[in-house]
Specification:
single chain; globular; ATP-binding; AAA+_ATPase; transport
Length: about 400
């Protein structure tokens, strides 16, 4: 078990973690959540003895990490997957860690098989992709078969198959009675993996509860109700009935109604009593992401803004008009007009069709039909000019040289 009591860490005049207290119990996957800069990485470094706390204590199994006998056999961690000597192969990297901790060499081959790196075990790690580096880091964490495991962004760079594998691995390790502490920014993955959550913001504890309780405490469930769109009077009748019964009704942009304060069976009964047909009556359960955003919205240090592109806009010359919006632009099925022809008009009027061509805008004729143009035919070059007889001279023209000779 990991236990932090009054944990505080200061860097000069900046307090990264302040008076943080929590417990990470065995037998469950505990998610560690918080915005960027909230102190998650600092907290995990203090757990592993990489940073000394300014105040408070943090212990693993009742002892600080530095006082654990043969700590790598009891605690495994992945904080930085790039903390590997690039000139070593994957196997040699794990073998060096095993020799430092008194772990037999056969365990190296076992964990390589667990993470799926057997075929690249002799390749240098500097040529590994981000996902392969993550797998190697997880293998290093599992090397001593520890009872306590800490992972910082373990699915970073993994493909969907790898993410599913990590999820199942975390659950399997917790099911064996181990303590699993996972930090991640992927709310959808935490919702599927974690059993318990510890949420911090600006270095302070915001929540320490199960995933289900966290979602319930930081979100409002509601019901979506939809009536026939062709009968607006039924929508108004239902709104009045729900409001009189103590419900709170808000219109949705798509025409549905968002109802809070009434359970679904009561909404159905009220609609039946008001003789209103329902096209939809469905519950809405908030996701972990929605609950997390609502909880931490006041603890975010780095907020993005809309890019106005003001510094990239060129001023229009005097007397110029801004370009007009093309009708239909941005709508489905809209395509930009063809570029103007070289030296021609941007939108020249259609010319009369050439012999054998279909009129402009007419449906093309099937290939082989009478009068159809073969789209694959090569253009026929013009026939060479044939010599023709000399044109007759005008009646009053001057005599030619040959006539003078006669």
């Amino acid at each position: 078990m990991i236990e932090a009591v009054g944990l505080t860490k200061r860097y000069g005049d900046k307090t990264a973690v302040y008076n943080l207290s929590f417990q990470v119990r065995p037998g469950a996957v505990t998610g560690f959540l918080g915005p960027n800069g909230s102190g998650k990485s600092t907290t995990m470094r203090m757990i592993l003895g990489l940073d000394n706390p300014s105040a408070g204590t943090v212990t693993i199994g009742g002892h600080p990490y530095g006082k654990l006998p043969n700590a790598p056999r009891q605690v495994g961690a992945l904080l930085d997957a790039k903390a590997v000597h690039g000139g070593r192969s994957a196997r040699n990297h794990l073998l060096s860690l095993a020799q430092l901790s008194g772990i037999p060499a056969r365990r190296v081959d076992e964990v390589l098989g667990v993470v799926g790196l057997q075929e690249v075990a002799k390749r240098r790690s500097k040529g590994f992709s981000l996902g392969m580096g993550q797998r190697l880091g997880i293998a290093a964490a599992l090397l001593g078969d520890p009872q306590v495991l800490l992972f910082d962004e373990p699915v970073n760079g993994l493909d969907p198959e790898g993410i599913l594998w990590v999820r199942n691995l975390m659950k399997a390790l917790a099911a064996e009675g181990r303590t699993v502490f996972v930090s991640s920014h992927l709310m959808s993955e935490m919702a599927l993996t974690a059993d318990h959550l510890i949420v911090i913001g600006r270095g302070q504890l915001l929540a320490d509860m199960s995933v289900t309780d966290f979602i319930s405490a930081n979100s409002a469930d509601f019901a979506r109700v939809r009536t026939p769109g062709t009968e607006p009077q039924q929508r108004e009748k239902l709104t009045s009935a729900l409001t009189e019964a103590g419900g709170h009704v808000l219109p949705e942009p798509d025409g549905a109604l968002r109802v809070t304060g009434l359970p679904l069976p009561r909404i159905s009964d009220l609609a039946h009593e008001a003789d209103v047909r329902l096209w939809e009556l469905s519950p809405h359960r908030a996701s972990l992401e929605e609950a997390y955003m609502r909880m931490t919205q006041g603890a975010v240090d780095y907020r993005s803004t809309i890019d106005q592109k003001a510094g990239l806009m060129q001023p229009l010359p005097p007397g110029a008009q801004p370009p007009a919006q093309v009708p239909g632009q941005g709508q489905p099925g809209w395509y930009a007009p063809p570029p103007p022809q070289q030296g021609g008009q941007p939108f020249a009027p259609p010319q009369p069709p050439a012999p054998g061509q279909a009129p402009y805008g007419a449906a093309p004729q099937p290939y082989g039909a009478p009068g159809a143009v073969n789209p694959y035919a090569q253009p026929v070059p013009p026939a060479p000019a044939q010599p023709s007889a000399a044109p007759a001279a005008p009646e009053n023209s001057a005599p030619t040289k040959s006539e003078d000779a006669r």
